[in-house]
Design brief:
globular; alpha/beta; Rossmann fold; seven-stranded mixed sheet; Dehydroquinate synthase-like, alpha domain; single chain
Amino acid sequence: MNIINVELGERSYPIMIGDAMLGQFPDALQNIAACNNCIVVADQTVAEFHIEPLVAILKSSGVQAHLITFPAGEQSKAMHTFETVISEIVKNGGGRDWPLLAFGGGVVGDLAGFVAASYMRGLPFIQMPTTLLAQVDSSVGGKVGINHPFAKNLIGAFYQPRLVWIDTDYLKTLPQREIICGFAEIAKYGMISDPQFFEFCEGNLHKILHLDRAAISIAIARSCEIKAKIVAQDEQDWGLREILNFGHTVGHALEACLDYSHINHGEAVFWGMFIEGMIAQEMGIFSKADFSRFRRFLAQIPLKASIEGIKPEKIINNMQLDKKARKGKLRFVLPVSIGRTMVIDDVDQELISHSLRYAQRHEWTALQS
């Protein structure tokens, strides 16, 4: 087991990473939050594949798991699901000392974390991510919340978990599209912080996408190390942590324009990183050589999601609701080299529109040309 600590003083917590380690979970849970009851929040797909062994291992250790499920998908990350989960906890007699386990992907973690932050002003919160995206990104750092029809993650809070439990065994049941989704965030870490890690991603792209045990273990651990270090320095996203949003200014707007249903988060981030990389190159802050290298890397990823047909004006309007916007100005995290970015809040809107239109005219695999 690999253990990475997120250093936040009294609210520090471990990220425990391993393979097929469910049998060790009850002891870890009791060390974090001794209990006889817990709440397990999962979507219906994850519950179908994985819930029985988790409930059984908890029961064998004397912990009754109260399961709450909802339909899988970004559409469930909404106020109506939040209210439903709260109501189910009340019906089950949930107490303030009951740990809440978020068992699933990013939607489950974000929604369940917001419930944990809100119910009785705070329940002990455990992240048990089952998707690659959640394991390398959304489970770490304490951002929790739900979407609003106007924008993604518009309602939420910072609420740190007590433990992040990453078992790579769960990845084996994921479809390829979900692996690609998680790889977007892995690639992002190399681009924003670590050129050697980006080089590793270039050289091991196909191994990571096919869940080669050694390659995926390195990719997950290094991603968590980078994020843990950034979160420790800037927990609430007022400075350094902004660099984690590379690809997300455009990406979140694309998700909103497509009603959170026709493109998943990782696909939107891949498109966002390409478009924001193009903006940086057109501004002269990202060299043509580096952009070409990044573009060739992206073109190897078998992405199917299209962004054709969305009016650039609609995308830009959705960007205005981005939480990074300051005084009406859009803020972009733009690459200046492989492994380094900068935040810029004065990007010409015509350049943004030009880059969006260019991306919409090209199929993803055409990026290498």
